[in-house]
């Protein structure tokens, strides 16, 4: 099964394979020139507060071929794909009657930074191809400075070893079949000239480059030959050679590919109900990226899920291979809902790594918290960037963590031991940070507005605080902690304050301080049950002002260049709201089509005019995770018919929210565990204006200053729910 063209041309120009230890990137340009262009020996950007950033160790690597009178490097890309649901990247080419397929993957079972780089050569002609020579080139940058000085490369009994004499960085390249020659003597020029490699290699100097040559002999019609290498990183090259040889364990080259496919097939579980064939492809690939982006190094780094793998495309070249608490919570929750509680548990343990938090306690009244208020170094140390206006203090992280923890526990993760610290260091902190407005105090929130006058009472933060406190109440019940009712009371108070303070004429604002601000982060107030999804009509209509030419949505109306891009995360969060309302808005179809056209990748940004991919790709929590969550929300919704938000056949009001039969909700009501917690939440009801609230009906809200909605109209009249169990 392969990716197929969808509604628009794919624009991505790079693919990543990762195994939790390292990551390799295949990149191509507009002319079709494509090579392995990056290799990182950690997934995360910065190992610790005192360490330098993780380096890109690879300049380029590729194969060459001499056959039927032609010789050259296999750098033109004729076709490229990721095998669906895996980390195996394939590049298809043809040379005369030879069909040449390149396979690149970071093996999930290797247990260290490294990748397999293979070439499959098939003769699909009617005649024998008499001479076939294959070459590899490995240009690592392990030395000093731009000139890559003090590099050394030698041929060993096993393969090629290269290291930086002063940096200590080392790579080992092990050929998977016996080469005709191992060389570091001007290998690039020799292939271009149609010649052979000079055997032997022992070279020191600037920017050393080595490679292997394999003589495949005659290839008969229908016959296939394989060559390739395992390239792996270590500071101990002797031990590394033994480790790689042990991993291969006598398997032939084709068996290595088959084993990797089998590993992925064994890891995947069942799809949620109702997926189309295209959605299943993207769902499985999204889960594959969630798995690839989780660090598997032992010790403090273990379990973290980086916000993106180390690649970016287009105009926005920043790379977000950093663990954010927020992105990690979405990713962990997605893994839990998809049936991978062990991976979710690892992610959550990292987010609350003991002894690593507290650097920003002065910003929150000195409270002792257990989850980063922004992001993390690779070793789990709390980290916030500072743009000159102060750090980012993001209190939404605490609520999101509690939500993700609750979901993982419900999925069967063994996390009961984490619950007491979560209650004290997240739930108690949130309850203590409710101020005189009834909302959680000002913070930087999801879009990272920094401090020193930029902080506000953001709807997103308070909505996730309310959701997190309800989940904390369920977790407290689970372990017999008597704070459960305190958390429920605090959650109800925040929800009432959202309804009375953050809603004008039925439209949910982005924050308290800007009475006409449109911010689509507020959509999660409906998704997480702080407000009722069926009461989002006015907000959805107003948010149409944030739609961009390409078809999706920008994140808010603040207007800077980053804000003005189409945000796929926002498209997916809106898609989840429509799914909860039993509506088909087309946003999931749009995201699916985008991924199909771009090898299963969901990026951070799209150009608002053209829809072209730009920025980090793939995004993990904000891309793959959000897609998985939207599909599960749709599968969990109870709808009489597509688009039905009206009355059920029994005459009851159809809220578009499923009954609480799975007991995964955040609400104490046994009739409300649909994961929206909606049965006792404020309902945002637009004023009775006698007009239709169709698309565009609320665009006037851009410049208006309306009236805040009475909380009496926003709150349900039903009694508070009874306690639920986990």
Would you write up a description of this structure?
The structure is a single chain. The protein is an alpha+beta fold and 726 residues long. The chain folds into 2 domains: 14-267, Glycoside hydrolase, family 65, N-terminal domain (Beta-galactosidase, Chain A, domain 5, Distorted Sandwich), CATH 2.70.98; 293-640 and 649-714, Glycosyltransferase, CATH 1.50.10.10. The strands form 6 sheets. The chain has a 9-stranded antiparallel β-sheet with strand order 6-7-8-9-17-13-12-11-15, covered by helices on one side. Strand 1 and strand 2 (23-28) form a beta hairpin. Helix 5 runs parallel beside helix 15 (620-636). The protein is elongated and about 80 Å long. Residues 1-9, 642-681 and 684-726 have low confidence and may be disordered.
Total count of helical runs of at least 4 residues: 16
- How are the strands ordered across the major sheet? 6-7-8-9-17-13-12-11-15
What is the rounded distance between the termini? 40 Å
Question: Architecture of the largest domain in CATH?
Answer: Alpha/alpha barrel
CATH level-1 class of the largest domain: Mainly Alpha
Q: What Rg, in angstroms, do the CA atoms define?
A: 27 Å
Q: How many domains, as an integer? A: 2
Strand proportion, as a percent range, falls in: 15-25%
Quick check: average pLDDT?
A: 87
**Shape by Cα distribution:** elongated
- Main beta sheet: 9 strands, antiparallel
In CATH terms, what is the fold-level topology of the largest domain? Glycosyltransferase
> Helix share of residues?
25-40%
Structural class: alpha+beta
Number of strands: 26
Unreliable parts: 1-9, 642-681, 684-726
């Amino acid at each position: 099964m392969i990716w197929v063209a969808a509604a628009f041309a794919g624009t991505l120009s790079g693919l990543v394979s990762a195994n939790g230890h390292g990551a390799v990137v295949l990149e191509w340009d507009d002319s079709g020139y494509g090579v392995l262009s990056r290799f990182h020996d950690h997934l995360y950007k910065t190992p610790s507060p005192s360490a330098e950033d993780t380096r890109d160790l690879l300049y380029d690597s590729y194969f060459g071929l001499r056959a039927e009178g032609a010789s050259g490097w296999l750098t033109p890309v004729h076709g490229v794909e990721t095998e669906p649901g895996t980390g195996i990247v394939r590049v298809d080419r043809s040379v005369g009657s030879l069909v040449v397929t390149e396979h690149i993957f970071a093996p999930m079972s290797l247990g260290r930074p490294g990748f397999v780089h293979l070439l499959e050569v098939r003769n699909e002609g009617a005649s024998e191809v008499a001479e076939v020579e294959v070459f590899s080139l490995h240009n690592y940058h392990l030395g000093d400075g731009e000139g890559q000085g003090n590099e050394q490369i030698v041929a060993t009994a096993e393969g090629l070893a290269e290291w930086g004499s002063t940096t200590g960085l080392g790579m080992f390249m092990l050929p998977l079949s016996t080469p005709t020659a191992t060389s570091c003597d001007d290998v690039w020029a020799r292939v271009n000239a149609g010649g052979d490699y000079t055997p032997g290699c022992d070279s020191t100097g600037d920017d050393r480059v080595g490679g292997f040559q394999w003589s495949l002999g005659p290839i008969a019609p229908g016959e296939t030959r394989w060559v390739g290498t395992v390239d792996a990183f270590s500071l101990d090259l002797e031990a590394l050679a033994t480790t790689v040889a042990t991993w291969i364990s006598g398997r032939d080259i084709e068996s290595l590919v088959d084993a990797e496919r089998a590993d992925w097939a064994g890891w995947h579980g069942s799809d949620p109900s109702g997926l189309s064939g295209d959605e299943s492809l993207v769902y499985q690939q999204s889960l594959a990226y969630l798995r690839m982006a989780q660090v598997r190094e032992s010790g403090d780094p273990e379990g973290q899920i980086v916000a993106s793998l180390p690649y970016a495309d287009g105009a926005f070249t920043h790379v977000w291979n950093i663990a954010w608490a927020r992105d990690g919570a979405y990713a962990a929750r997605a893994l839990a809902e998809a049936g991978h509680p062990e991976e979710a548990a690892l992610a959550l343990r990292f987010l609350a790594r003991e002894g690593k938090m507290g650097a920003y306690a002065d910003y929150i009244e000195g409270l002792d918290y257990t989850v980063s208020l922004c992001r993390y170094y690779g070793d789990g140390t709390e980290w916030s960037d500072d743009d000159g206006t102060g750090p980012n203090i993001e209190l939404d992280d605490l609520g999101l963590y509690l939500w993700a923890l609750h979901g993982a526990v419900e999925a069967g993760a063994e996390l009961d031991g984490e619950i007491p610290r979560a209650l004290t260091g997240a739930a108690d902190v949130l309850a203590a940070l409710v101020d005189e407005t009834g909302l959680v105090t000002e913070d930087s929130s999801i879009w990272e507005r920094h401090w020193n006058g930029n902080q506000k009472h953001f709807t997103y933060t308070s909505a996730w605080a309310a959701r997190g406190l309800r989940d904390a109440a369920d977790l407290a019940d689970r372990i017999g902690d008597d704070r459960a009712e305190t958390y429920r009371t605090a959650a109800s108070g925040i929800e009432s304050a959202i309804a009375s303070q953050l809603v004008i004429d039925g439209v949910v604002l982005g924050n308290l301080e800007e009475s006409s601000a449109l911010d689509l982060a507020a959509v999660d107030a409906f998704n997480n049950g702080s407000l009722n999804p069926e009461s989002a009509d006015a907000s959805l209509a107003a948010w149409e002002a944030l739609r961009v030419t390409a078809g999706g949505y920008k994140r808010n109306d603040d207007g800077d260049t980053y804000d003005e891009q189409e945000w796929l995360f926002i498209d997916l969060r809106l898609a989840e709201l429509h799914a909860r309302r039993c509506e088909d808005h087309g946003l999931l179809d749009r995201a699916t089509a985008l991924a199909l056209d771009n090898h299963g990748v969901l990026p951070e940004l799209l150009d608002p005019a053209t829809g072209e991919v730009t920025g980090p790709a793939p995004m993990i929590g904000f891309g793959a995770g959000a897609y998985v969550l939207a599909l599960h929300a749709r599968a969990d919704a109870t709808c009489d018919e597509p688009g039905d938000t009206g009355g059920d056949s029994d005459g009851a009001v159809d809220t578009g929210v499923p009954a609480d039969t799975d007991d995964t909700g955040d609400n104490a009501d046994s009739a409300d565990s649909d994961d929206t917690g909606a049965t006792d939440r404020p309902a945002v009801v637009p004023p009775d204006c006698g007009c239709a609230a169709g698309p565009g009906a609320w665009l006037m809200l851009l410049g208006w200053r309306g009236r805040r909605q009475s909380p009496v109209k926003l709150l349900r009249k039903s009694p508070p729910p009874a306690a639920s169990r986990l």
